[in-house]
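Figure 3 (text version): structure tokens given as input.
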């Protein structure tokens, strides 16, 4: 079984296919279902929330691919997102992805969507699939020791964490732009500080390149993919730190970690960490 989120217009296109192809439409089984198709190898259920669940038959997949909107206005849509900002332990990870319209459809078919709606085991499984795909992306992993050094440097210059995040987002975006050729492209950033991010991207050549900072950016598949990859890289780095220092960062408090290890596994500006370090 597979699942993905679809828009109201895509639901209308599906209803048009059902009518045109005379597919067997079953009675819905509960108040949450909008429509249910069962016709030989085709099995599709659409919920009122916009979630679509389908079986793994090729016919079902062909129908779903045919209704998904393909944004042919751009050769690439880039998306960037970060994770780890609110965690006292582990790194800050920033990822940018660059996807063609075809790759966006492919990732939607895999179930890529807002990572906040995906449970952790499913997210890590999905991230493993993304990791093995060859779409273009670039990441920056600020491990705790590097993060703490950079944070101190930005602080000494009168800057904030948002300045550091804006810098990191600009790095992954600029590096990714170098890797692609396009006639027309769009960059979508999950908005956190418009002015600081805009300042860091001032020197990006914007010819045929549209840059958008958007609240709820994970509604865009390139941003959602960046978020899923970032969370995978975050969890992988936490696993590495756990093995190296023989601790379980997900189940300890800063007080439980020795002073000499703490700066290597934690962001020292967090109050609960700073209190331990003194």
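Below: residues designed for each position.
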């Amino acid at each position: 079984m597979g699942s993905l989120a679809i828009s109201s217009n895509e639901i209308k296109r599906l209803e048009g296919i059902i009518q045109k192809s005379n597919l067997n439409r079953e009675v819905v089984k509960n108040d949450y279902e909008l429509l249910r198709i069962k016709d030989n190898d085709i099995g599709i259920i659409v919920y009122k929330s916009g979630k679509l669940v389908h079986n793994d038959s090729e016919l079902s997949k062909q129908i779903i691919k045919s209704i998904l909107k393909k944004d042919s206005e751009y050769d690439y849509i880039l998306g960037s997102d970060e994770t780890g900002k609110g965690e006292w332990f582990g790194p800050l990870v920033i990822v940018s992805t660059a996807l063609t319209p075809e790759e966006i459809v492919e990732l939607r078919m895999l179930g890529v969507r807002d990572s906040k709606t995906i449970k952790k085991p499913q997210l890590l499984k999905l991230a493993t699939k993304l990791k093995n795909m060859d779409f273009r992306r670039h990441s920056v992993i600020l491990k705790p020791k590097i993060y703490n050094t950079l944070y101190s440097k930005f602080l000494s210059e009168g800057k904030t964490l948002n300045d550091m995040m804006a810098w990191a987002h600009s790095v992954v975006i600029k590096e990714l732009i170098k890797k692609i050729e396009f006639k027309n492209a769009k960059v979508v950033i999950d908005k956190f500080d418009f002015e600081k991010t805009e300042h860091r991207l001032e020197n990006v050549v914007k010819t045929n390149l549209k840059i958008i900072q958007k609240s709820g950016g994970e509604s865009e598949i390139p941003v959602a993919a960046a978020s899923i990859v970032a969370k995978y890289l975050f969890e992988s780095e936490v696993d590495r730190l756990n093995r190296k220092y023989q601790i379980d960062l997900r189940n300890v408090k800063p007080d439980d970690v020795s002073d000499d290890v703490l700066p290597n596994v934690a962001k020292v500006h967090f109050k609960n960490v700073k209190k331990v370090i003194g």
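The chain has a mean pLDDT of 94.
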